[in-house]
Structure formats: C-alpha cells, structure tokens
Amino acid sequence: MEFFSRQHSLFLLGINFVNKVRLKAIIRLYKEEISRNINKGIQIVVDVVYDRIDNQLSDFIGFFLNILSLIFSEIIRLRYQLYRHKILKDNPLGCSVIVVGNITVGGTGKTPVVEKLAKTLQKKGRKVAIISRGYKSKKESLTKKFLRFLTHGEPQPPKIVSNGKELLLNSKLAGDEPYMLAKNLPGVVVICDKNRVKAGYYAIKNFMCDTLVLDDGLQYLKLKGTLNICLIDSTNPFGNEHLLPRGILREPLHRLSRADYIFITKVRRIDNCEELSKTIKQYNSKAPIVYSCHRPKFLINIENGNPESLELLKNQQVGLFSGIAYPESFVDTIKEQGAEIVFQKRFLDHHRFTKGEILSVYNSSYISGAKFILTTEKDAVRLPKVISKIPVLYLRLEIELLEYGTEIDCFNNLANRICLPKQK
What we know:
Helices cover 40% and strands 19% of the residues. The protein has twelve helices and 13 strands. It has helices spanning 2-49, 56-84, 110-123, 142-150, 171-174, 176-184, 196-207, 274-283, 328-336, 355-367, 377-380, 411-419, and strands spanning 96-101, 128-132, 159-163, 189-192, 211-215, 227-233, 261-265, 289-301, 307-308, 317-322, 340-346, 372-376, 392-401. The relative contact order is 0.12.
C-alpha cells in the first residue's frame, strides 16, 4: 500500500507540474495576444501621424491628435522661454560638444552620421565619447529606485556601453543605436544616460574625453552644444508639418534657426531638393546645407557574420522586415538593388522582437518563395536566435556626401570645418 501511495503522490505531483507549465504557457500566449493588439492600435495611430491612411477612423483619431498637438506646442513654447530667461539653465562642459539631431521623430539617418563623424574625429587624434539617451534600453526597476531613495544611496552611474576597448552591454541593456555604434566604433567611448550632462561629465572625468558627440540631442537643452547639426530627411522632411502627436515635428520649423549645419539626408538627386532648400533658408539663411545619401555598401549574413555583395540580390525574390520609424526608404533601397519583394512585415520603431514573431516572418518569407530575408542593421542587433531555412542578412549603409555645383567635399574636410574650426 505504501508503494501505491507513493506512486499516487508522484502522479499528482506530475499532474500539478504539467498544469503549472500549461498555465504559464496560457498566460504567455495571453500576454502576447494583448501585446499584439496594443501594437496594432499604436500602428494605426502611427499611420495617421504619417498620413498613410485616409478614412473616417483616421479623421476621428486625427481630430484628437490635433488637440494634443496644440497643448504640446504650448509646452514647447514655455520650455524655451524658461531657458531663454535663464530660469532653467544649460550646462557647458568645457570641451567640444557636437550635437547631432533633428526636429522630427525618427527616420533621418542619424546613426550613420554620428558613426562617420566620430570615426573621423578619432582619426584626427580626438578622444571621442558618444553620449546617448539609450532609447528603449532596459531601465532600472522601480523597486531598486525606491530602495536607493530610502537608503540615500548613490545615484546610479551612467551605462557604459563601450569603454573604447570592449563592448560591455548588449542591445537590450544599452538600446539598439548605442550598441550598434559601440560595435562599429572600436576606440570610441559610448555612454547612455537620461541625464546626458551627468554622462558627459563621466566621460570627461573617467575616460579623459575631449570631444563629445551628443546623439539625438537637439531638444536636450540642459547640455550646451558647441555646434548643432540638424538632419532632415529629403524623402519626408517635415511630414504634414504638424507638431507631435498629430505630425512628426518635435518643435516648430522656426527652431531650424539654432542649427549651425544642416544635413539633407537620403538625397538621390540634388536638384530634387530645391524647394526643400528654399524652405530651410526661410528659417535659417546662414547654416551651410550639406547634401548626403545613405549609400548601401554590402550585406552581412546574420548567422556567420560574413559580408556579401549587393549583387546577390539582383533578380532575386526576398522577404523584408523592419522595426524603424520610416521603413519606406529601406524598401526603396532594396528595390534599387534589383530585388523583388515577395513578403514584407513592418513593426513599430525600436520594437523588441519575440521568437514567435521572427519565426513567423522567416516561415512566411520562405512560403512566399523568398531566397533571402533582409532587415536593417539596427534591427539585426535586436534579433533573437531563431533558425531560418533561408539566409538572413542585414544591409550595411554608410553616409556619403554629394557633389553640389563645382564643390566636391569629403567628410574629412567637412569634419574639419564643423569640429575643428580653429584648424586651418
């Protein structure tokens, strides 16, 4: 009897274990379903902001977003007044601070510009640190914050993504853009913190940096920049010219006047930018306008890290997926390489992919007849490990300057003018 009693107990334990596993699986599926529905709702709002849809629902959502835009406009105006009258103060750090940013949300191609700028300065003997907010990186838990507050603990130091010698954080902890910059820039310090004044001081004190590149920092008024570089996407410069959240503008167009240099990015033909250049000069007639493009260089196989020629895509059927602010430019670039897109999936900007989502993309691409699956470099750093039946590659882009009139400038000379103004 004792034997059967023990067997019965083990049997009940086994059932309980199976039930717990099933319950966890059900909860996980339930959470994923809620997350998918929330993302669908957010995507509809994003499509309204970018004017991708035009129906009664978009008009209804747009009406409420317009009201919020008016409120946002007043908040911005008040904020600038507080800094203008020195009620809120900016902080100079005593070294060169190059601010790279835009007046719209996402999609202007800041990361390749920051990368090229930092690389050029490094070659000229500067000790460079990139300071980033670390958007969508993993934050300190509320419990830890509360405990630190109760115990009067020291403030959390900035996140060191790279000390210039090695990568110290992954993309989840650092954020995809800082991680990508740190990976591509050996010798350059990359630091993340919401308080970028604190991060800047940390870079100067602990790494003896003499040049800071503030990534996405035009709206960060606490840190005073030496030079401000504003990027404008030629394919979608100002959206519908509404402020957030009805449009993509972070601040009114007249704030272009703060820029010392203006990069028009993703340019295919300079003569197509005449109207845009006139608009810019209405608000800032002094800043030089630099025309640039994001040139596709090669592909990288995600599984083994091997580079592949762009010729690989010619006359091939491909599947695409991305989680970037303006995926249209990525789609156009792939089409220009001669590829036929048979499947594509769009996620929200900076979306953290799940294994299930990526497996679905891989399988759908394969079923659609794709020979390759393509994504962006920024999305590649967030990919979970999932086996694909066909090669998965990401596109490597680099910034290049374009010819304007009789002037042909290289990034090296441009960096001299921007970052080393005293050097002749």
